[in-house]
Amino acid sequence: MSPSDPAPVFESLSRLSEDAILGVMAKFRADPSPLKIDLGVGVYRDAEGHTPVLDCVRVAERRILDAQVTKSYVAPAGREEFNAAVVELVLGREHRAVLDRRVIAVQTPGGCGALRVGAELLRAAAAGTSIHVSDPTWANHLPLLGGAGLRLQRYPYYDATAHRLTFDAMLERLERAPAGDVVLLHACCHNPTGADLDDAQWRTIADLLSRRGLLPYLDLAYQGFGGGLDADAQGIRLIASRVPECLIATSFSKNLGLYRERVGALLAVAASEERAAAIRSHVLQIARSIYSMPPDHGAAIAAEILTDPALRGTWVAELGTMRERVRAMRRLLADALRRGGGGRAYDYLEHQRGMFSLLGAPPAVVERLREEFHVYMTADGRMNLAGLMPSNVDPLAHAILQATR
Ligand SMILES: Cc1ncc(COP(=O)(O)O)c(C=O)c1O
Predict the structure, then answer these.
(1) pLDDT in tens, 363-376
(2) 162 falls within a domain
(3) Which of 259, 278, 307 is the last residue of a domain?
(4) Pocket test for ligand 1, best of 188, 251, 255 (most atoms within 8 A of CB)
(5) How far away, in angstroms, is 336 Cα from ligand 1 center?
(6) 249: which of 28, 56, 114, 371 fits an S-S bond (Cβ 3.0–4.6 Å)?
């Protein structure tokens, strides 16, 4: 290169620091200890430590491969039978908005794809909109939503030391949000806290959102992992019946174990059928401009399972097994901590829902757990309880009690 040549374009890019979660995973892999415990991953694991392919998925996949005659494009909206089945799964067949034909759904590459397309839709509708996310929230919400140009704000949600929701502070903050702002809510199994709103709190939030003219954006990444498929959608169904419009980003990564297939959907509930059609046209244009069309294979599997009663029954049973396993690990761990001298301080682990809970300890404790006890979790103390097996519950309880003493 001569001195007169322009600087290479990528010269301006310096190397980014490693993603925090990937960093924990790498450290775990490098640890030779046979006693190591991985609570850092964001996926479900069975009692043998595997993230299984569900039986219903295997059957559906075989059928699809046997019957498939083309790999030609499907459409920017993905599969319509998938989209229709998702609306029913999330809102139920009898929901007022569904009966009024005010709901649209568009298949997306995973829940992340849905979140991003929804954020782009918000930008198209009202550039510079503020979106309020819980403090804390899933780390990826920030780039997915902020990257689309939305202004991020936080509402208080959870006290990690006291292990409880800060619901009054959440209400107080949202009361002050200007009409038209967007509020992101975790529909169930809040990531990373495991602390969900109860029925009365959902009703209070629904009233607030409707009274203040705030737009709810519901993230449903763990339907079926909390109380069951319908139970986990109750908050969404309530909100969608109280406000004129809302967005829902759903994912089948966890509940169908289809992580790498990238299956999700963006749903929009609109004030009228006509508005819903207008929103859909924008969503499709956004999809075209980012990835053109979503991947098909996983959505074909999901559609087969959702629309075949026998396969759906198998799925519901397998999902129940996953949910109960995580619940059982929560109970066992809380019990082991009680027996080990932790008193009732860890009861919250038993009552929270989904895969995640926060230890609520400073980073030094998280580091000590890793260095001394081979227990791996993210720096914020997020533990994936699905990483536990009956055999390592007692060692983990011992490690936590020692490290926090
Ligand atoms: C809170 C939350 N939202 C959305 C997602 C989206 O997941 P995916 O894009 O893998 O479907 C996840 C996955 O971990 C999540 O935890």
Answers:
(1) 999 999 999 999 99
(2) yes
(3) 307
(4) 251
(5) 30
(6) 114
